Amino acid sequence: MGEEISTKHPDLNDLGSDVSREFRGRRVRNRKRLVDCRSDIDRWNAPFLAIYESLVPAEEEKAKQKQLLASLEKLVNKEWPRAQLYLYGSCANAFGVSNSDIDVCLAIEDTDINKSEILLKLAEILQADNLQDVQALTRARVPIVKLKDPVTGISCDICINNVLAVVNTKLLRDYAEIDGRLRELAFIVKHWAKKRGVNVTYQGTLSSYAYVLMCIHFLQQRKPAILPCLQGMEATYVVTVDDIECAYFDQVQKLREFGAKNTESIAKLVWAFFDYWAHLHDYANAVISVRTGSIISKRAKEWTRRIGNDRHLICIEDPFETSHDLGRVVDKYSINTLREEFDRAANIMQYDPDPCVTLFEPYVPS
């Protein structure tokens, strides 16, 4: 059935084994560059779609989120009449799984605000309205108020003026409207990443947001392309946030047939996604860029060396905050973990008799 499928993450204290494993992985990747997709790949379309459907939040859950947002808005507007609340992140970008917490941005136009004072006042207001577990975390990297709503059972984090995240959320949601295969692929990849333990940024792996960008870029690169490059088209949505101009074509209802010439199934795309990251991506030189719909060079971005804690071993450009590399958290140990997991997934998709089961087997430390 092909080569042995590795399931061991690198021992972070064993640099020698890291190096030998990397050479072994590179040898496997080079040997398999020209492998065609298995002929029976479409047998797994239905099982993959069933996994996707099981992860998608129910309409009832979305209704509860809107209910909570509306009740929070009433409370907030008593104190700050011109303020607005926005859902952002995975709960609002079409890529959130069931039973997720929600992230809310409180947008206040006054530029002279003291965020800590507002958060403390907000916490006071929320506690007075009998919301549960209210905490103002004013010293966090992103200061927030945490709470739980006893009516809907939803937990919520509220931040102040993180408007760029709201715009990013809209961009991803618009991409999701163009072709349903993006959501299917991203949910499956995120589910795989969670099961295999490679979606924890503080451990040096990638965020859910990074994986979604990887999926968008991948579908922009298919031949024929499944997704367009919205930032490369005439802008119909333009907003400036923190001196960053965010502009792109957002009339996505006009693009629903964009990917129709590409008839690749979800199973084929899952195979191709892992095959790309295991065997074809140029980690040494390439930056993936949803903004340009292309690969750009690390040299052009000046991402060829470590600066402070930022390393550029796998490079994923943020679509608007273009100096931000989503892969900067990946270090010389966790890059081996990621590449080994991409190799494992590619092997499973190519050779395993039941990839829909084996792919998602939880990672167990050896």
Automatic annotation (TrEMBL):
Residues 265-324 form the PAP-associated domain. InterPro entries: MTPAP-like_central, NT_sf, PAP_assoc. Keywords: Cytoplasm, Magnesium, Metal-binding, Transferase. This is RNA uridylyltransferase. Gene3D superfamilies: 1.10.1410.10, Beta Polymerase, domain 2 (3.30.460.10). It is an enzyme of class 2 (transferase). Its EC number is 2.7.7.52. It catalyses: RNA(n) + UTP = RNA(n)-3'-uridine ribonucleotide + diphosphate. Its main location: cytoplasm. It comes from the Eukaryota. Belongs to the DNA polymerase type-B-like family. One of its GO terms (molecular function) is metal ion binding. It is found in: Cytoplasm. GO terms for cellular component: cytoplasm. Residues 50-176 form the Poly(A) RNA polymerase mitochondrial-like central palm domain. Its cofactor is Mn(2+); Mg(2+). The lineage of its organism: Eukaryota, Viridiplantae, Streptophyta, Embryophyta, Tracheophyta. GO terms for biological process: mRNA destabilization; nuclear-transcribed mRNA catabolic process; positive regulation of gene expression; RNA 3'-end processing.
